[in-house]
Amino acid sequence: MVRLIALVGLLVANTIATAQQILPYKDPSLPVEARVKDLMSRMTPEEKFWQCFMIPGDLNNTTPDQYKHGLFGFQVSAATQGAGATQQMLQYNTGETMEALVAKVNAIQKYFVEQSRLGIPIIVFDETLHGLVRKGATSFPQAIGLAASFDSSLMYRVANAIAAETKQRGIRQVLSPVINIASDVRWGRTEESYGEDPVLTSAMAVAFVRAFEQAGIITTPKHFLANVGDGGRDSYPIHFSERYLKEVHLPPFKAAFQQAGAGSVMTSYNSIDGSPATASKWLLQDLLKKEYGFNGFVISDASAVGGANVLHFTATDYADASRRAMQNGLDVIFQTDYEHYKLFIPPFLNDSISKERIDDAVARVLTAKFKLGLFEHPYVETGAKNAADMQANRALAKEAAGKTFVLLQNKNSILPLSSNTKSIAVFGEDATAGRLGGYSGPGNNVVSILQGLQAAAGNTIKINYALGASRENHEWKVVADTCLFTDATQKQQGWRGSYFKNVSLSGKPEAERIDKKIDFHWTLYGPDNLQVNQDYSVQWQGVLKSPVSGKYNIGLEGNDGYRMYINKKLVIDRWQKQSYKQATIPFVFEKNKLYEIKVEFYEPVGNAHLKLIWNAGASNAQKQIEEAVALAKQSDVCIIAAGITEGEFQDRAMLSLPGKQEALIKAVAATGKPVIVLLVAGSAVTMQNWMNDVAGIVQVWYPGEAGGEAVADMLLGKINPAGRLPITVPMHEAQLPLVYNHKPTGRGDDYNNLSGQPLFPFGYGLSYTQFAYSNLQIHAQPGSEDSMAIISCDIKNIGTNDGDEVVQLYVHDELASVARPVMELKNFKRIHLKKGESAMVRFVLSKEALKLYNENMQWVFEPGDFRIMLGSSSRDIRLQRVVEF
């Protein structure tokens, strides 16, 4: 009996021990590969799908079991109280403290670790282009400005600071940086890039990625690949050769993967040689994973997988788009809503995607989660921000801003401003706006240019401000919803819209609704209630109540055909399809009187625009300019902060300053007072119409939260600008695309009515001082792969101010088996020299830097003559020599 009891006790003990045994995938002592293999062996097909699905959101307004199968991760967004989430919810980017966000992240993570079946933690991801897009995070200068610093060590320091603020909040993946080549400055996202050159972009990419990956945060370089196409349009289809892609667009990605260890990559929306980038086997499998040996995971841009069906028309439905993307190498589907999973999950469950491909995708995601340590340390330590760190980051933001400014013109050394300056007139919307650029958080205590000048001037210089002109042309505006009613009772705002699935307004409407105002932009999709993007028509009817009396112009702007009736009389008739036009008529309105109006529109082929516009209550641009001129006459110097409108899906056909800004510049300059134009822009601005009228021009980009302070210091001489253009600035849009590193032409490159040369070349930038170059030395290093040659020269500050010089090394292959660029940047170095000081600048030129893709697309070094060039820009070469290697 005793032996039986002992045996039973032993069995119970063994059972308890077995129950307490750590599952292999939860055992940190095992190799990651073994843990991944064990975990995957326990996963259902549904659980595997959810590791390949990422969305913005959280656990609010969800049922407890909605995420029982797990999830790749969230971009944690604003929400109200809900299941499983903390009750301290504040709006994303508008009031959410770091502490609240950390609590929210931990609550979400706790659900997945403790309540999902396998306890797989999520990855919290976000955007950090030039600072984390969260309240309380530091906003640094925009990416293009950081590239203009030509200082990769500065980029590394900035990225380190951003990474620290990111990790504090529990965010472990960033959808940054943008390392596309800005091959056409009409592209609205040029501001997000590092410019047109693959070597400069690679250097900045490596510095950014390395800082984040060393901090334990996965970077996601984007957009893979070449998502700026004909006309500088975003996400346009490309048909570039493999050679061109490998020579120009791929090097930054390759460097980010192989030199800096980027753990992820995001595909682009565009198609490449006919295949959506999200489903290109050549791009994702053959090139990325096989040739480059990339072992991270590939995510789509938001909703891009479904785009294969909707935009590219290469998939029969969303499930087919999901199948094609995953089978061809995508690992994670990034969507914008939880409910979208229903569209993309079917091929994960019906074997239309091979098991091997699904397992490969899931393994890449799980490997990343294990390497991040999320299984052992899923939660973020709560705690307040370190005030000293935040102060240091703000100081770094100001320092960085000062290094981004590019001095483009400085007639009669107008800058820095004379100590005799007693009054400054400041004009422009961007003098007060404090814009931070695309993909920005709100920043901390953002200082505008006007505020910076006022603080720096103190009581010694009088600062006066007038708007003068804004970026937008406010002579026309969309008729406000407060003026539109369904009928004379005025009980309901808006007009009744009848939507037809034909272009003739015939039959019964497919749908009817109340539209608050007529301001529609149906490009990617048609009207939501029709579910079509072509062959439709709309009729709006209602009354307009005028808020003013007087004779005003009213009409429509958009791509015809459209027509408008006022009090049943046809007043505008552009019913024949032709183009995008504005059509208005003068009309006498009486205040508070009601006018019966009908607007009709049709679209047979898609891409529709339509606005109801008038000039009632519009601003008087001429009066604003006259006020600016009067203020200018009372001042010693005039500063105009002029800006542009750009960003994602905001490409620019014209590169001139928008609105009435050019008129403002010319009017103020006509007073005879010296004018300095500060370009608040992330891309090129044409300035042939006004540059000869002004004394100084400085590209200040979007300089970050402390930018106003740095701009003031630059104007007053405390900062000597030394930024360089990472893009080529054309004289005219007709020259585009225009880059410095093009290949030789078959003949000339001029037009019969315009030069082929740029207004400002790549690498260009002036200083408050001057530098002399001398003593070029080239020492070959035969037999060395890492060092083909040591190149050096002496630089001397021969001016009257301390300052920085950016020494640029360019190379031209004098004779090759295939055409080579006329010149290529191979290295650069930013140095500081006091006035009268000299220094030797030394570069190592590797054999790798001289390789090319030969006729057989082999990456080889071809011995021969190479022209070595050192200079201050791509057009300002100071020293050069032909050397045989």
> What is the total tally of β strands?
37
Overall shape: globular
The percentage of residues in β strands lies in: 15-25%
- The end-to-end span amounts to 92 Å
> Nearest-angstrom radius of gyration?
30 Å
Briefly note the structural class of the backbone. alpha/beta
Contiguous low-pLDDT stretches (5 residues minimum) are 1-19, 79-94
Helix content: 25-40%
Q: Could you tell me the mean pLDDT? A: 94
Assembly type of the shown chains? single chain
The biggest beta sheet is recorded as: 7 strands, antiparallel
| Contiguous helical run count | 21
Report on the architecture of this protein.
The protein has about 900 residues and is an alpha/beta fold. About 25% of the residues lie in helices and about 25% in strands. Strands 15, 16, 17, 19, 21, 22 and 24 form a seven-stranded antiparallel β-sheet that branches. The protein has a six-stranded parallel β-sheet with strand order 5-4-3-2-1-10. A six-stranded mixed β-sheet has the order 11-28-27-26-12-13, with helices on both faces. The chain is globular and about 85 Å long.
